[in-house]
Amino acid sequence: MGVEVEDDALLVREVLGGDVDTFGLLYDRYAGLIRAICHDESPRDLHRAQDMCQEVFLRGYRNLVTLKDPEKFAGWLVGIARLVCQEWRRRRLRDRNRFVADPPEQAADPPEAASSEDADRILAAIADLPERERLALHLFYLQENPAEDARQVLKLSRSGFYRLLDRAGAHLKRRMGNDWESNR
Question: Domain tally for the chain?
Fold first, then answer.
């Protein structure tokens, strides 16, 4: 599943031309990435992340006519996701009930013993990384996009993208090394 910039531009033009159903293809292509971004920003609450993801795509659809360069759809959508997450954080800070404990997160699927715990620990460590490092890891490793496409979404040169991935990997390794040792 690669992020195909040329295809994005074609799909955006079709949606703007009146083919509303084509937006579903853009959704299918980017929903996982946007949900991951929202999941990292919420206190790892899947339901909130899904709600925020839906808001991102609604705004994207409503404001698609403002997108100046259809080839930059992915980066534009990530920008909307950042904005939605920022607004959510502000609302949460203003919420008088924020000190009331959230109900425990309900798992959609039954947990899978130790591998589920390890995956949760890795995802938590990724969520603690700086935003651009998180995005690079999500795009390249978790969403399995080719490096060329992922770097275009992040607006980086090829070497800049690989440096960012290296830095993210080093931070993650340090973080996991400390957490991993204390939990084993």
Answer: 2
Q: Give the C-alpha separation, 22 to 11, whole Å.
A: 6
CATH number for 137: 1.20.140.160
CA 29, CA 23: separation in Å to the nearest integer?
10
Distances (CA, A) of 119 to 12, 20, 181: 35, 37, 15
CA atoms of 174 and 50, how far apart (whole Å): 30
pLDDT tens digits along 83-109: 999 998 888 776 655 444 444 444 444
- Point out the domain boundary residue: 87, 104, 121: 104
Low-confidence residues in the chain, pLDDT < 50? 1-3, 98-114, 180-181, 184
Domain co-membership, 100 together with 22: yes
C-beta neighbour count of 19 within 10 angstroms? 12
Q: What percent of the chain has pLDDT over 90?
A: 32
Question: What CATH number corresponds to the domain at position 75?
Answer: 1.10.1740.10
154: left (phi over 0), alpha (psi -120 to 50) or beta: alpha
| Threshold 0.85, pTM exceeds | no
The amino acid at 140 = F
